[in-house]
Amino acid sequence: MIKLNPKLSQKLSYVLLFCATCLVIVPVTVIIFIIVKNGASAITWEFLTSMPKDGMRGGGILPAILGTLSIVVCAISIALPIGVCAAIYLNEYAKDNLLTRIIKLAIVNLAGVPSVVYGLFGLGIFVMLLKLGVSIIAGALTLAIMELPVIITTARGALNSVPYSFREVSLSLGVSRWQTIQYIVLPNALPGILTGAILSIARISGETAPILFTAAAFYVPHLPRSVFDQVMALPYHLYIISTQIPGMPKNIIYGTALVLLMLVLSMSLVAIIARLYFRKHRKW
Amino acid sequence: MEKIEIKNFNLWYTDFHALKNINMKVKEKQITAMIGPSGCGKSTLLRALNRINDTIEGVRTEGEINIGGKNIYADGIDVDSLRRNVGMVFQRPNPFPISVYNNVAFGLQVNRIESKKSVIDQTVRESLEAVLLWDDIKDKLKKSALELSLEQQQRLCIARVIAVKPQVILLDEPCSTLDPVANQRIEELMMQLKEKYTIVIVTHNMHQAARISDETAFMLLGDLIEFDKTDKIFTNPSQKQTDDYVSGRFG
Fold it and tell me: Which residue in chain A has the smallest CA separation from B112?
């Protein structure tokens, strides 16, 4: 080991750390730059609001946008209530015993399962066993299970950040435990829970593998009509038009990627703004 | 008249024996102070009186505490109504991050004791008047309670307790975060409140106990060493440990 003088080593490590940090920005910028450069020309009102034409080489991507939105809306309306209830139980009621530890372990492990495994699981359980078919609901259930650990974890964090003294005061006023949760804990944890939910939405809108076998279709000639419909979905549509269709105009591929990216980024942005807003208005 | 009677009361935190066979009788409508060094069990005993200790995992009790003639540790006791009857004010002022009005009305509204707006308005006013806060903040009822000064916040917390109409008020070092002037004013308030409520206060400040209480309990390492008239405890205690503590030889 070469001994450097402290001043020099300080400078060197600063530069090293700084460069490592800058490196994070590079891929994001490059990705956005390339996609915008190649795809911006495809984005027109018609592209966003009409059906695909000419074997998807022309027209718009409306069914894919609506398909993704409906899957995501269904998924979050399943996962959010269940996740929040579980988080409330774990944070407010659960005693530190073997069962609780097993549940916590299960949540951690659920978060680590690869998304394609969820896809196959969804195919086996929802599509085949429960005979829901390849449909919005089957895809939404699959995504919901995948997102549960994230929602439970963020919701627990939000509940946990509500000062314990609030609960104690409320109980000491003769308010029952559930009412304390209802009137004191939940309202104060809501911002955190919502932020977590929005980030979850952003994450699942871009997922391909879980909906591959459970919800997504190559092409559907109409817009989604019920939760039992097969739908086109943006991430899967992007995969198809980039690999399966010869003579696909490049700007449509990039345009589709741009729409997906914008969808995800704008939701993350909403989450960030919400968090900033609530942090500023945080009352304790 | 005895309001609270503690009989052979023991409390454990898992394995730690925090209260050892406590026996004492608290008289109605007077101030009873509990003093002793940190960790002596005085706060634990106070928190046993409204069973707020129940919320801590691993707490186990033995013996009886009778309040108004009823053992609050008996089976089938409604803990929520016990806590409405035995209110508590904590060390740090801890209003909820909602308006002044909603803080005071919280217990009434959530417990659905009262739903008529006029009655709630009246109770809020009376409670704030009882803690001498009404005149200062009657125009700020819709403002966040956190905008009040610390002393006002602590008064508000007392008003919040009074609003659910308890008979006993427990105070756990209510002045320890306040400046001396605020401290004195809260003490004056307590002297007024004892006309209507039975007050039990835990304090670190021996002068405070001497100034405001009628009877004082001295605790040490989970034992109740001595319980007597405040004058006697501070001038002529019968136990040597009490004498050492109140004269400042330890603690």
Answer: A175
